[in-house]
Every structure is written in C-alpha cells, then in structure tokens.
Amino acid sequence: MRDGGCMLCDMRHLAQCALVSRRFLIATQTVLYHNVRIDPVHYCEREVDLAAKRKRKSFFERNGEPVDAPKQRVEQFARTVRDNQSLAIQVEYLKMPYMTRETCIPDLARTISVLPNLKYVDLPEGIYSDDRACLSLKQELEARCPDLRKMKYLHGAERSFALLAQSRSWQNLEDLELSHLEVEPAVLVTVLASFPVLHEVRLEDMSLLDDAVFRPAASMPPFPPITKLSLLNVPGITASGFEAWLSPPDAREVLTHLTLSGTGVVPSELHRILAMTPHLRSLRINESVHRALTPSTTPPLSSRSLETLHFEIESPSTSSSDLQPSSESYYQYLASCILAGGFPALISLYALSTSFAGLLLPPPAAPFANSQPAPSGLRQALMLYTKSIPEHDWYLTVISPPTSTNRRGSASATRPISLYNGSTQLGPQWGEKARDSVIVGNGFGGFLAVPSEGGPRPTSSGGHKHKHSWSKNSRGWMG
C-alpha cells in the first residue's frame, strides 16, 4: 500500500491487474489472498460517491438506509473461498472491523471452515468466554484451523481451557492471553506445557495463581520456557517464584521480555530477577509504593543485555507539598545504578518522574580544573521518556554520554522545560522570539503554537470549490 493511499483502491487496482495475463493472475492472487483485510470504507474521495450509491432510496423515502458494505464484503469473500479451494489454502490472516465480526458470526463460521492454513483471525468477544452464540464458530475453529497461532481465554471459558491439554488443539500456538480465569496453578501449567512452540504468555487478573505455578512439583509438569511473559494484577507471584522458575538453564536463557504490573515483585527485589536473566532485553515494572527505599541495604541493579526499561514507580499523593514522594527514592536508586555502569546496553528508559533527567547528569567540575570526566555509565545516547502522572504524554529527553570536550554530558529536550518568562526566547522549537507565537495547552499535557496576529490569517475552505478527481460514472457501489 502506498503511504497515505487508500487500501481498498490499491486492492481494486491489483485485482484489475490479474485480468491482464495468466502470469499476472498467479502473482496477484498470492498478494490478495495471503493477508485479507475487510475495510469498512474507502479512505479516499471515492467514499463520498459510493456512500450515496449504497443507500436504498424509494419514491417515498428519498434519504434511504445505507447498505452494510463490510457485511456484504464478508459474504462475497466467503462465497469466493468456498468455490475456489486454491484460493482458500492461500489465506493465512483474516482481519475485519469490530462491528463486522460481532454481527457476521454465521458468515465468519462458514468462511473459516474452508481455510485450513489460517494463522490469525479477528474473532468476536463471545468466543473467548464460551458464549453460546459463538459455539458453532469455535467448533469450526478447532476442527478446521489447526495452525492457529494466537488465542485468548476470558472469564467463563475455564472448562474449555482445561480441555486443551486433552484435545491437543492448535499445537502451533505461539501467543496465549488469559484474563480473569479462575483456574488452579496445576491446570494452568498442564495446559501451557501442552503447546510445544508457545513463546508469549499474558496473565491478567488471575486471583488463584501464586508461586506454586513456578515451583517444580511431582503432580504437574514444570512451567515451560517463555520468551515474552506479562503478569498484570497477579499479586500472588513474588521474586521467589521467579527464582524457582529461572533456576534451570533452559528457562533463563530464553526469557527476553518481561512485564510486571501489580504483582508481588517489589522494586527493591528486582535485582534478584535481573541476576537470573542474562538475555533480558525489555523489562517493564509498574508498581505503587508507600515507603521510601533504603539504597544502603539494597543491592544495585545491573543487566548487560537490557535495552528498554519501563521503570514506572508511583506513590500516593501526600497531603503536604514539602514532603518528597516515596517514589523519588527509587528513581535516585535507579540513577545511581545507571551512573555506576549497571546498564551498558540501555537505549530507552521510561520513568514517572520529571526530575529524573537531572539525576543522570554528573555534577559539574570546578572551573579550569584538569580533572577527568565524571563516570556516567552511558556508552551511547539514552532516550529518556518522563512524565509526572500516567495520564500525561511522554516527554522525551536525549541524554548524551560525556566526551573529552563535554565532560559532564548533555541533555536535549524536545520542547522547552519552562515557559514562565514570556519576554525571553523559547528556543528553536518555537521560533526566534516569544511574541511570534502564543503557547496554549492542548489538554493532554502538550502544547500548541498558535500564530500571532502579525501573520496572514488562514483562509476558509468554504469559499473554494473542490473539484473531484474521480469519475461520476463509476460502476458499482462496493468499490
């Protein structure tokens, strides 16, 4: 697809190329049916004309009700793949809008029943919770699509989830998401161990899970090695459970991405996990703390492989403005670990502290002193993203390591840090003088530059006539 183009028009033009010759037909069919996407509208000027043609008008009702174009596209696609098996075996990805997959469940079931090589499909929400309305669709999915790579189970699907260990469905499953399931640790581990190529697992709001999931036991298989693991609102799992799981070499050598939010792993015990994950590249921890950290009694954090770190620690707001939030002690602890060289491969860092950038710059040296540059622990530029509360936008600051000419290092921000004095210059991002633009908030933590009255006023589009480039005699209303 071209940048900024219309996907439906591109597919339409590609389908017309298939009519040129047999050689073009084979090439275009591979592109058209490998990754199928049902779009609701045209993203170009054609949609205005097509929307008017889709309305069912009559003599008594001039406006009419529009035809459901995505639903008819699904019906046409189902008829095509059911009539042509050579096209059906080429389909591996099927994507469609939310309302289309929620209202076209019978058509979707008839479609996937002839797609044996399907790897991913957008499914209605009811299929993840064993809704009776989606029972036939799920049966077709289990019987006709054995190569599915991604699946999700929600509350209400505990029985079908437990049967996966016996049915051996979807043996090529790679991504599994579980949310609000009330299953015992033995059932969970048994099902996860039945998928031989599973490498990404997301567990959310699993109240019955604890460290017994990771500890080896004779009544259940061990927790399988996972490349990407996300734990959200699972307070029963602690750092001790991770140490039990990562003790075998096959588990700690595979884990590369880890997300911890609302778990029993406190930030002061994060060093225990980093010490047992030699190939961890991305770590995200999101916790709320009530007490300050004591750096003297906490071992430093270090990881030679970590490239992206989301260190989002927040504390409840204090009643007095003079008190420092408890979370600031954790950011001071992290800054000292970075300056000590604990993260030599770190590239991106996310923190819920607007003052964190100043902690990463070493103190300035005395004037005219011949001292060596202060160690910063940074080997390359660090992309630091900060904000005060989770609802705001990320604020980017680039921290450069010190050099022979710049012994302290530098920090370049993407927008001015202070806008207090309006008579001074605002920096190159906002022009040469402050009176050239007016800065107003956009409601999302950012700023908008509004031109001053000295510049030309923007013209209105109401006085111009738009000339459409499409033909009014285009045939068909489906595009």
Structure description:
- By secondary structure, the protein is an alpha/beta fold.
- Helices cover 27% and strands 16% of the residues.
- The protein is built from 16 helices and 18 strands.
- The strands form 4 sheets. Strands 6-7-8-9-10-11-12-13-14-15-16 form an 11-stranded mixed sheet, covered by helices on one side.
- Strand 14 and strand 15 (395-400) form a beta hairpin.
- Helix 1 (7-17) packs antiparallel against helix 2 and helix 4 (69-83) runs parallel beside helix 7.
- The longest helix has 15 residues, at 69-83.
- The chain is globular, with a radius of gyration of 29 Å.
- The model is unreliable at 413-445 and 458-477 (pLDDT under 50).
Attribute tags:
eleven-stranded mixed β-sheet; alpha/beta; 479 residues; 27% helix; three-stranded parallel β-sheet; disordered C terminus
Category from helices, strands and their pairing: alpha/beta
Helix content: 25-40%
The low-pLDDT segments are 413-445, 458-477
Total E-strand runs:
18
Secondary structure tally, helices: 16
- The whole-angstrom Rg is 29 Å
Instruction: Compute the average pLDDT.
Output: 81
Cα(first) to Cα(last) distance is 16 Å
Note the overall shape. Answer: globular
* Largest sheet features: 11 strands, mixed
Adjacency order of strands in the biggest sheet: 6-7-8-9-10-11-12-13-14-15-16
Proportion of beta-strand residues: 15-25%
